Amino acid sequence: MHANILVVEDDDINYLVLQKILSIDYTVQRCVSGFACIEYCELHHPDVILMDVEMPGLNGLETCQALKARSDTKDIPVIFVTSYHQDHEQTKCWQAGASDFVIKPVNALTLRHRVAAQVKLKNQHTQLEAMAFVDGLTQVYNRHYLNSEFDKRLSYAKRNETAFALVIADIDCFKKYNDFYGHLKGDKCLTQVAQLIQSNLFRGEDAIVRYGGDEFVCIVPQVSIYGLETLTNKLQSRIKEAYIIHEGSELGYITLSIGAVYSDVVIETNGQRWLQAANELLCLSKKNGRNCVTIKEL
């Protein structure tokens, strides 16, 4: 898949020059102002930004500073395209958060090499970040991912006035399972359950997190109450169909208790409060005999 390069340039001719040089190797998009750039990056997260310095309204330096001040856009590399030749002028680019810069008139070979270098670094950073966010046993997201990303996802839903849901699923009587079958088989059970849950989260924006030893959190944006009920019921059905033998359970196989909260329009953006609310509903499912789902609006 081609990397996505965003060119922030208000001059048509300058844009066409950059677009012609880069379009052979990359997907090239354009914004004509700093404000449009910030709005675009909130939604699309390009791999590299080529930024003109001199623009009406919000100039390139101010735009770069605004991007670097945001947790969701600070890691996007910015290459300034500038006619600045003086040291003090170029220093301003570095101080604004630039990863590199190229001088106008642009040398095609230099531009290609510098963009390629930033794309490579960005890919390496993404791979390392992904490794840090993945649970080593189950290969789903870990708690570090939840701590880093959950509040951001809630804030995005609030800004865009979209629905949001959080699900906590717990394996019933898992301590008995570990005690009876041993930890190696317990690890295999955890991995199998994680993969079964993940297989039911079809959309790219959905995420499953191993929250505790045998607890899994599902982040499910833009879902209706009907969709949430369908999802949670399907999760239980898939676990039942897998029929993972559990002689310490009354039913004789692994089951899930589930607590879930949702909001048609997000108001509360504190992730800990969402987790606390979902966990209370999970406890209620446990008290009601396990292997059941409890859902409430937040």
TrEMBL record:
EC number: 2.7.7.65
BP-aspect Gene Ontology terms: cell adhesion involved in single-species biofilm formation; negative regulation of bacterial-type flagellum-dependent cell motility; phosphorelay signal transduction system
Residue ranges annotated for the Response regulatory domain, each copy included: 4-119
SMART domains, alphabetized: GGDEF, REC
InterPro entries: CheY-like_superfamily, Diguanylate_Cyclase, GGDEF_dom, Nucleotide_cyclase, Rev_trsase/Diguanyl_cyclase, Sig_transdc_resp-reg_receiver
Residue ranges of domain GGDEF in the record: 162-298
A Gene Ontology term for the protein's cellular component: plasma membrane
Pfam families: GGDEF, Response_reg
Stated name of the protein: diguanylate cyclase
Species whose genome carries this gene: Pseudoalteromonas holothuriae
Lineage: Bacteria, Pseudomonadati, Pseudomonadota, Gammaproteobacteria, Alteromonadales
